[in-house]
Structure formats: C-alpha cells, structure tokens
C-alpha cells in the first residue's frame, strides 16, 4: 500500500496525493520530470529548488530525471523501475481527472514497472474538485497559462471567486485542458509554507510563465 506520487508541484497531483492517503495508502517518494536542462519541471516550468522545498515541506524524498518529450516514455518507465528497487512501493499515484488517453498512458508505464496506477480524482467533477481542494486548505497559485488567460493571471491564488471568474471566461475550472498550471505553496499536511515570489514573466511557445524564486 506504499505509493510513489507523480508530482508536478501543482494542485491536482497534490490533491491526488492527499486523497490517496485518505484511502489508506502511504507515500514513499515523489517523482518529477525535469526539462532536458534539468533546471525546471517539464510540464509546469517550476524551478528544481522550489520542488525540493515542497518535498521538504512534505517530509518526503523527491526523485528527478531530465527528459525531452521525445524520450519521455522510455525514461519514465526506466525511472519507475529504478524507484521500485529503492522504495517498497506497489502503486503510482497520478492526478488526472477524466482524460482517457492520459489514464491509458499512466496504466501502461506503471504496469511496465509492476506498479498499479492509482487515480484518486478520476471521474470527479472538475469544478467540485477544485472547490474541494480550496476547502481542504490547499493553497495554489497560477504559474503558467495560455494566451486565452494572459500574463496578468500569473501569480494569482486559486480561490472560489477565481474559479467563477475563469468559468465566466470559458476556461475550465481545473485547467485540465492545459489552460493553466499551478504551484502549491501550502497545505494542511505541509510542515511549512513554501514562500515564493514571482520576479518576472516570460512567454515561450505562446504560453506565459512566471519566473519564480524562493524567498529568503
């Protein structure tokens, strides 16, 4: 019943982590994929030291590997297999909600490492899940977003009011279609808040990113 968590640093992976614990599973290690330069996460663009600060707040080790999108699957399986040798894990936890192709991929790579994929948020109502996360005390800020939102949304905390604002703009409350990504800076199960500041905003591949650094 021990699990590794596919950890993006964002709200969905964090809430899936929390729900897995509530279901009786025990966390052993976090897994994050970095870009090919190894300085920030592949999907959310979060700096490595901030992800490490999250793992310290959770009191868990975090395992990184670097990858391009081209060799992502091969490396992912290889690292899952390595983690099963270092930690007594039987499950891999993912934060996907309802995109079937994502679930199929996660089940495929987990099976390749003799792990069972666990998706605690699966088939939940997207809006309800976000509101549950907020109610649970998970504090997340937008750290990247598409041009439909624009750079002014970078750094904003996910609140019930913001969820309503997003939906009024026709944006999915969860950002499940890639409209935005988040960084969790605090949760009831964190030992401490991860204090970050947004020092700059950049655009890459028509996507806006907050340039983040730890405070202090």
From TrEMBL:
PANTHER family: DIPHTHINE--AMMONIA LIGASE (PTHR12196:SF2), DOMAIN OF UNKNOWN FUNCTION 71 DUF71 -CONTAINING PROTEIN (PTHR12196). One of its GO terms (biological process) is protein histidyl modification to diphthamide. Keywords: Ligase. It is an enzyme of class 6 (ligase). One of its GO terms (molecular function) is diphthine-ammonia ligase activity. Its EC number is 6.3.1.14. InterPro entries: Diphthami_syn_dom (IPR002761), DPH6/MJ0570 (IPR030662), Rossmann-like_a/b/a_fold (IPR014729). Transmembrane segments: none annotated. This is Diphthine--ammonia ligase.
């Amino acid at each position: 019943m021990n699990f590794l968590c596919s950890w993006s640093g964002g709200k969905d992976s964090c809430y899936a982590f929390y729900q897995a614990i509530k279901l009786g599973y025990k966390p052993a290690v976090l897994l994050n994929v970095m870009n090919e330069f190894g300085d920030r996460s592949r999907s959310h663009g979060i700096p490595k030291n901030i992800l490490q600060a999250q793992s310290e707040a959770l009191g868990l080790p975090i395992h990184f590997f670097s990858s391009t999108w081209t060799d992502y699957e091969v490396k992912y399986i290889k690292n899952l297999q390595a983690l099963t040798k270092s930690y007594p894990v039987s499950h891999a936890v993912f934060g996907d909600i309802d995109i079937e192709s994502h679930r199929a991929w996660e089940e495929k790579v987990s099976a390749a490492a003799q792990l069972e994929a666990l998706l605690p948020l699966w088939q939940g109502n997207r809006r309800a899940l976000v509101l549950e996360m907020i109610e649970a005390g998970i504090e997340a800020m937008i750290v990247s977003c598409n041009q439909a939102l624009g750079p002014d949304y970078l750094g904003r905390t996910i609140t019930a009011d913001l969820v309503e604002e997003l939906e009024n703009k026709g944006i999915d409350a969860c950002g499940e279609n890639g409209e935005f990504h988040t960084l969790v800076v605090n949760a009831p199960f964190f030992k401490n808040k991860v204090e970050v500041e947004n020092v700059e905003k950049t655009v890459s591949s028509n996507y806006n990113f907050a340039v983040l650094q730890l405070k202090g």
